[in-house]
Isoquinoline 1-oxidoreductase subunit alpha (Pseudovibrio axinellae), 153 residues
Amino acid sequence: MAISIKLNGETHKVDAEPGTPLLWVIRDHLKLTGTKFGCGVASCGACTVHLDGEPVRSCQTYIEDVEDAEVTTIEGLKSTPAQAVQQAWTELDVVQCGYCQSGQIMSAVGLLIENPKPTVDEIDEYMDGNACRCATYQRIRTAIVRASDIMEA
């Protein structure tokens, strides 16, 4: 099935079977590898992308569901919250192994778009579905607070 997908501001024609997860279209068809496969059941957050500005799990979002939507991957982040999050991640050396970090960043940006000044409890609640095997949760939380401060400055 040929489908048109708008990804990171560019329109692509993709030939994929109905029911193909967006994750595999992004990685296998469009060759963008920043979005990771973690669990395949939308529990870990490694595959998080933005669909019309909202974080979604691309492993459980199907290609036919995104035809008229704007999909943004880690490679396409350009907003002020995205820049602030990336700066904070670097300043605070958040990454350990790095595998989950694109999903963590995509969720953090989604949070800061929705709520530019979240409390620690709001951060914990919003980020709850993102797993980090290295347990860098404290650094992630601190970086989100720092990104909020960067945006406010």
The chain has a mean pLDDT of 96. The longest helix spans residues 137-152.
